[in-house]
């Protein structure tokens, strides 16, 4: 696309294109990997030895970043409806996170390990009907928060993708009731999708 005026469309294409190329060059499976890297660096999310759960993990960019940051120490468990090619240091569960059996399998994998960090990049299949997509997206985020309530360690952190729109304010309030601090993050690699934003809950309350 030719740069004429300071067009938003040009910026969107340009930024997306840059991260797609960068991911190819550096061996990441998605440009989304750069979103997590940026947030993780800024907010010091990872430490070797942690237990991390990655919800909506395929094709695996975030899981790759998590595995790198754990440096072979700790545990990473990833879930997605879609298949995901193996990543060293990551246990993968294929299934729908909305289903009780998948949640049970995740808990089984984690056993009694305290979970230090939950990262959730789940997005539903887009129908193009705004209210349906928004409702489905918020539902996935709510389920992930519910999982945190139950399984995240006291003091643990939760990074989740949400879409601004219906249900956002209620979800934000629920996050604030669960964590000591909640901040919003809009990493550079996310600029293209206007309503997508990341919420980071820091320090799960007892
Ligand atoms: C944007 S992609 C995640 C990209 C990933 N973070 C990466 O870096 O490669 C969103 C993922 O959410 C998954 N997803 C959507 N609904 C899901 C559900 N109910 N259970 C599990 N995964 C789901 C999709 O299959 C898709 O792979």
TrEMBL record:
Residues 28-204 form the Ribosomal RNA methyltransferase FtsJ domain. The gene is rlmE. Its EC number is 2.1.1.166. It is found in: Cytoplasm. InterPro entries: RNA_methyltr_RlmE, RNA_MeTrfase_FtsJ_dom, rRNA-MeTfrase_E, SAM-dependent_MTases_sf. Keywords: Cytoplasm, Methyltransferase, rRNA processing, S-adenosyl-L-methionine, Transferase. It holds the Pfam family FtsJ. One of its GO terms (cellular component) is cytoplasm. It catalyses: uridine(2552) in 23S rRNA + S-adenosyl-L-methionine = 2'-O-methyluridine(2552) in 23S rRNA + S-adenosyl-L-homocysteine + H(+). Specifically methylates the uridine in position 2552 of 23S rRNA at the 2'-O position of the ribose in the fully assembled 50S ribosomal subunit. Gene3D superfamilies: Vaccinia Virus protein VP39. PANTHER family: RIBOSOMAL RNA METHYLTRANSFERASE (PTHR10920), RRNA METHYLTRANSFERASE 2, MITOCHONDRIAL (PTHR10920:SF18). It is an enzyme of class 2 (transferase). GO terms for molecular function: rRNA (uridine-2'-O-)-methyltransferase activity. HAMAP family: RNA_methyltr_E. It comes from the Bacteria. The active site is at residue 161. Signal peptide: none annotated. Belongs to the class I-like SAM-binding methyltransferase superfamily. RNA methyltransferase RlmE family. This is Ribosomal RNA large subunit methyltransferase E. S-adenosyl-L-methionine binds at residues 60, 62, 80, 96, 121.
